[in-house]
Design goal:
55% of the residues lie in helices and 11% in strands. A hairpin with a 5-residue loop joins strand 1 and strand 2. The longest helix is centred in the middle third of the chain and has 21 residues. The mean pLDDT is 93. Helix 6 runs parallel beside helix 8 and helix 7 packs antiparallel against helix 8. 31% of the residues are buried. The protein has nine helices and four strands; from the N terminus they run ββααβαβαααααα. A four-stranded antiparallel β-sheet has the order 1-2-4-3. Pfam families: DUF6904.
């Protein structure tokens, strides 16, 4: 079963599951975000979600964290059925920064809508429920670390998400780097505001995006291809 838990320093979220959980999520992400250049204006957002897919794929291959989780097999059950078996399953996990993960939840809503438009019978689709559960798990994890009244505001914002068409994805890098630079207490206090910034695309974002457009326009480049100075530390204290 796929699970999510905030990391000890609240730097990000630890996504855990067995091989099949992570592989199922990874496949669903690939299906929903489509092929390269399939959705005009969404290539930057697609790249960010592929970054999370990359981590999930390597986690499933055992390249990240390996944990042992109780599987529900009690001693009396083994005696009853004459079994000799381990009482723990192997779970794999990886960490993703909070701003990065919250943006993925936001961007996936657009991809889900476009995916549904391309399909005839989405009610029976295998991948959409996996994506919905992924989004719900992220918000449920967030709920456990912010005040109830703040979460209600955030939930309302996530129910009325603005489109991420032609989104200035470098803004997520700025939020990531700023968030990493905080201490644990500062992260706890700022998590709500970061979630809202991503959900409602506030004035700070609008100003930043306008600056990117001014840089990109003379070169006729998409704004997601503009490089900015956002240096990530070599090691993150999760």
């Amino acid at each position: 079963m796929l699970t999510m838990k905030s990391t000890p320093n609240h730097t990000g979220v630890k996504i855990s599951g067995d091989y099949f959980d992570l592989d199922e999520l990874n496949l669903a992400l690939y299906k929903v975000i489509g092929q390269e250049d399939q959705y005009y204006g969404y290539e930057g957002s697609r790249m960010r979600i592929l970054g999370i897919s990359y981590e999930l794929r390597h986690a499933a291959q055992g390249d990240r964290n390996v944990d042992f989780v109780f599987n529900g097999l009690h001693e009396h059950t083994m005696k009853q059925h004459g079994l000799i078996a381990p009482d723990k399953n192997i779970y794999f996990s990886t960490e993703v920064l909070w701003p990065e993960l919250l943006y993925a939840v936001t961007a996936l809503q657009d991809f889900v809508n476009m995916y549904q438009e391309d399909k005839k019978f989405t009610l029976w689709d295998l991948h959409l429920p996996v994506i919905l559960r992924f989004q719900s798990l992220v918000l449920d994890c967030l709920q456990g670390h912010i005040p109830v009244e703040e979460f209600e505001v955030i939930l309302k914002a996530f129910n009325q998400l603005a489109s991420v068409n032609d989104y200035a994805i470098q803004y997520v890098d700025l939020l990531n780097v700023k968030y990493i630079g905080m201490n644990k207490q500062q992260r706890e206090q700022s998590l709500s505001s970061i979630a809202l910034k991503i959900a409602i695309q506030d004035q700070d974002y609008a100003t930043f995006r306008k600056q990117l457009i001014n840089v990109a326009s003379p070169h006729k480049k998409p704004i997601h291809e503009i490089n900015i100075q956002a240096e990530y530390p070599k090691k993150i204290e999760w």
